[in-house]
UniProtKB/TrEMBL annotation:
Any Pfam family matching the protein: DUF3458_C
Stated family: Belongs to the peptidase M1 family.
Enzyme Commission code(s) on record: 3.4.11.2
All residue ranges annotated as the Peptidase M1 membrane alanine aminopeptidase domain in the record: 214-427
Keyword Magnesium attached: no
Lineage: Bacteria, Pseudomonadati, Pseudomonadota, Alphaproteobacteria, Rhodobacterales
Major enzyme class: hydrolase
Requisite cofactors: Zn(2+)
Record-annotated Peptidase M1 alanyl aminopeptidase Ig-like fold domain positions: 432-523
Listed InterPro entries: Aminopeptidase_N-like_N, Aminopeptidase_N-like_N_sf, PepN_Ig-like_sf, Peptidase_M1, Peptidase_M1_dom, Peptidase_M1_pepN, Peptidase_M1_pepN_C, Peptidase_M1_pepN_C_sf
Protein name: Aminopeptidase N
Length: 844
């Protein structure tokens, strides 16, 4: 496969003035007729005419009405064209039913839908399928379906016929078409300037009852973007469609967002509180792309973080405003450490803006998205809220309609603040997670903090240079009082000191408040000082972090030294969790432990070989100790979390359910499954039903409830995904692979559906002790299924390969088994380029 480099960017030789497409839909032979107006691009120097096109049957091609015979390869079409403006026309035939890769135009449960990002449009017709080619699209759809949708505003429609026009120039990756027998859940929004926008959420018959929440989330997002970013919606219509077969969460096509049904459909009976929160965030994310991604798009795919990092940052601000900012920040950091830090530590490490790739689909990563968002958060911390707002206003004003770059983005900050951001730019260009350590010196009322930063070299960045690190720091006095306002220490050197003067007694420093930079911090503190922060830190993140650090240190000592669980940690979190004045959701988070893979990563960082079984045992022992420590209060906290009101997915009720369910888990561990069974039987919502079911499985009493659950929910595919996933997640490590294997034989295991495949194998790959079990059974099983899936859906296969990204951390025996699995996949004839690239990088 060809490697593409950022440094090689050149503009396309032609400007596209307009595109007109006609679709004559047929499940096996859809005809796509295109009429594209081109003229030479004055900024280009190469005028060779090449249009991308893959898996297309060309029926005819014309230039200015005269038939031409272009040269066709498996990548596209080229032909001689005039120097003057010209119209290219083509008629191609495509096979939506045969398109199991779910890129381009495909069928899902009898409906037609599209997925064009990143390079799917070339499977629809011949076109310059690159994000810097923007054009207006006119689309005609002919087909025997009640609903025929495309981007923009409707022009006309009659039975079996619809015309659409999108006045906003867009790249082809934002094109969308949907056709089917769908039901609309309507809504309405009036913009701040008084324009009425019609909203619809289209679903398959039977799903009408799961639309209300998505529609409310959309309206809330539209309002928030006006209020916080001054961004107004710009068409008369905004449509969302739910699709069952989808490779990712959702897609921001202009005016016609397409969603994985798991990312939009919700009801209290079938969706958990976490599902509701995720749906709200994804709807917001896709909606926010209308400005950050669509109106201002990316010049090339190396700039992906320009739209994704910013849009993730915006959706996290939205969730913080809609729910609890403290809980959102902690959840985001847990996720970042679990996914992005792992990526940065292994063979897939790459900068937020990569410099080369083979298959762009493999770069929709935690680094581009989540670290990309962290970089924006740091920028805002450094320049301040007002300057951030001014810079964003300038960004929208200066680049509306552009295909922009990270340089453009940073320039608006430089121009509004006068700052030189050349060193800050390293956050975009260097891979790896900086390690930040701090030493303290105390003398005569002066505290000196000396920081050292070091980023481990990687293949992507062999010689990392010091980065700008904003370190939000506070000081907690001996009485637990805050001694000064949080200060942002701006670290730019490899080693740098900061001084706090005029202090009375020696304070405890609260460093990296709010997780102000995506780094691994080492701050040696005495146990008493750490406990002091857990008891008193006014920064909600660092208070939680103190508990988490104590948990990690205790677990590591349990794993490596056979130590007992740290009683100071247990007492510390007991005090916080029993403090009824705190938000229940925050208290529930306090009860979480570092994940087993986080512990493996910490051991690896210390130069040790992690033993997944020992890590698992330590986690179990710690949970037993927690159950014992909370024996006095668990039942009363559980009772206090009961809700005497109809189900509401908002933060307040969700927080209570989260704490109540954490208590249920501790109670079940110490006693038996009776309380869980009672909750299961009484549950009128999925959050409580599913967590009771998990407790029952863990207690060894799950069989009857699992069967009951299956017969209750057999016809609901999203709930059945939970049923499949939970059994793997809750399996004993030695049984996880066998449980997954058995589930693949279930008649409802439709492996071609990405959600169902992920329910089983995504769960297996995050089951740390199960996936890395010494038998190697999980490695072998996943390899078998990845080989099978690759022939059908390379994109989802390639993403699932990340399960193996940490394989070199483990012992020689496990490594040999993982290597054998990887080699077996790599030896598969006709393995897709997507999977080949991922596995070649992972195998190393
Ligand atoms: N911009 C989208 C990313 C995407 C995608 C979505 C669905 C299927 C395939 C896809 N390839 C890339 C989603 C987002 O970040 O909003
Ligand atoms: Zn996005």
């Amino acid at each position: 496969p060809e490697t593409i480099y950022l440094a090689d960017y050149t503009p396309f030789g032609f400007i596209v003035d307009s595109v007109a497409l006609t679709f004559d839909l047929d499940p096996r032979a859809t005809r796509v007729t295109s009429r594209i107006a081109f003229r030479r691009n004055p900024e280009a120097s190469d005028f060779d005419f090449f249009l991308h096109g893959e898996q297309l049957k060309l029926n005819s091609a014309k230039i200015d009405g005269a038939a031409v015979s272009p040269k066709i390869t498996d990548k596209g079409l080229s032909c001689d064209v005039p120097d003057t403006p010209f119209v290219f026309e083509a008629e191609v035939e495509i096979d939506p039913t045969g398109n199991t890769a779910l890129e381009g135009l495909y069928m899902s449960n009898g409906m037609y839908c599209t997925q064009c990002e990143a390079e799917g449009f070339r499977k629809i017709t011949y076109y310059p399928d690159r994000p810097d080619v923007m054009a207006t699209f006119k689309v005609t759809i002919n087909g025997p379906h009640p609903v025929l949708l495309s981007n923009g505003n409707p022009v006309s429609s009659s039975e079996h016929h619809a015309k659409w026009y999108d006045p906003w120039p867009k790249p082809a990756y934002l094109f969308a078409l949907v056709a089917g027998d769908l039901i609309a859940h309507p809504g309405e929004f009036t913009t701040q300037s008084g324009r009425k926008v019609d909203l619809n959420l289209y679903v398959r018959p039977g799903d009408e009852g799961k639309c209300a929440f998505g529609m409310e989330a959309l309206i809330a997002s539209m309002k928030w973007d006006e209020e916080v970013y001054g961004r107004e919606y710009d068409l008369d219509l905004f449509n969302i469609v739910a699709v069952d077969d989808f490779n990712m969460g959702a897609m921001e096509n202009k005016g016609l967002n397409i969603f994985n049904s798991s990312a939009v459909l919700a009801s209290p009976e079938t969706s958990t509180d976490m599902n509701f929160e995720r749906i709200e965030a994804i709807i917001a994310h896709e909606y926010f792309h209308n400005w950050t991604g669509n109106r201002i798009t990316c010049r090339d795919w190396f700039q992906l973080c320009l739209k994704e990092g910013l849009t993730v940052y915006r959706d996290s601000q939205f969730t913080s405003d809609m729910r609890s900012a403290a809980v959102k920040r902690i959840s985001d950091v847990i996720d970042l450490r679990g996914r992005q830090f792992a990526e940065d530590q292994g063979p897939l490490a790459h900068p937020v803006r990569p410099e080369s790739f083979q298959e762009i689909n493999n770069f929709y990563t935690a680094t581009v998205y989540e670290k990309g968002a962290e970089v924006i958060g740091m920028l805002k911390t450094l320049v301040g809220d007002d300057a951030y707002a001014k810079a964003l206003d300038l960004y929208f004003e200066r680049h509306d309609g552009d295909a922009a770059t990270i340089e453009d983005w940073l320039k608006v900050f430089e121009d509004t603040t006068g700052r030189d951001l050349s060193q800050f730019k390293r956050w975009y260009g260097q891979a790896g997670t900086p390690r930040l350590s701090v030493e303290e010196a105390w003398e005569d009322g002066t505290l000196t903090l000396t920081f050292t930063q070091h980023t481990p070299p990687s293949v992507a960045t062999p010689d990392p240079q010091p980065q700008v690190i904003p370190i939000a720091t506070g000081l907690i006095g001996p009485n637990g009082n805050e001694l000064a306002e949080t200060r942002i220490l701006e670290m730019t050197e490899a080693r740098q000191s900061f001084v706090f003067e005029g202090l009375g007694a020696r304070p405890v420093a609260s460093i990296l408040r709010g997780f102000s930079a995506p780094v691994v911090l080492t701050h040696e503190l005495s146990d008493a000082d750490r406990a002091h922060l857990l008891a008193h830190d006014t920064d909600t993140f660092n208070r939680w972090e103190a508990g988490r650090t104590m948990a990690r240190q205790s677990l590591l000592a349990m794993i490596t030294k056979d130590a007992a669980p740290d009683s100071a940690y247990l007492d510390g979190i007991h005090a916080v969790v029993c403090d009824a004045s705190l938000d229940p959701a925050y208290r529930a988070l306090m009860l979480g432990l570092p994940s087993q893979s986080d512990l493996a990563s910490a051991l690896h960082d210390q130069g040790q070989v992690p033993d997944p079984a020992a890590i698992y045992r330590a986690g179990e022992a710690m949970r037993d100790a927690m159950a014992a420590r909370f024996a006095d209060k668990a039942q009363s906290i559980y009772d206090a979390c009961k809700i005497d009101a109809p189900y509401d997915p908002g933060a307040e009720q969700a927080g209570k359910r989260s704490l109540g369910n954490a208590m249920l888990s501790l109670i079940t561990r110490r006693t038996n499954g009776d309380l869980a069974q009672a909750q299961y039987d009484a549950a009128d919502n999925m959050t409580q039903q599913l967590s009771a079911l998990a407790c029952l499985i863990r207690a060894g009493d799950g069989e009857t409830a699992l069967a009951k659950f299956e017969s209750q929910w057999r016809d609901d595919r999203l709930v059945m995904d939970k049923w499949f996933g939970l059994q793997v997640l809750e399996a004993k490590p030695e049984e996880a692979a066998a449980v997954a294997d058995t589930l693949t034989k279930h008649s409802d295991f439709n492996w071609k559906n990405p959600n169902r495949f992920r329910a089983v194998f995504g769960s297996l790959s995050v089951h740390h002790a199960g996936f890395h079990h010494a038998s190697g059974d999980a490695y072998a099983l996943l390899a078998n299924w990845l080989i099978k899936l690759d022939a059908v859906n390379p994109q989802t296969t390639a993403r699932m390969c990340t399960a193996f990204q940490t394989w070199k951390r483990y012992d020689a025996d496990r490594q040999a088994k993982a290597a054998a699995a990887l080699d077996r996949i790599l030896a598969t004839p006709d393995l897709s380029p997507d999977t080949t690239e991922m596995l070649t990088r992972i195998r190393g």
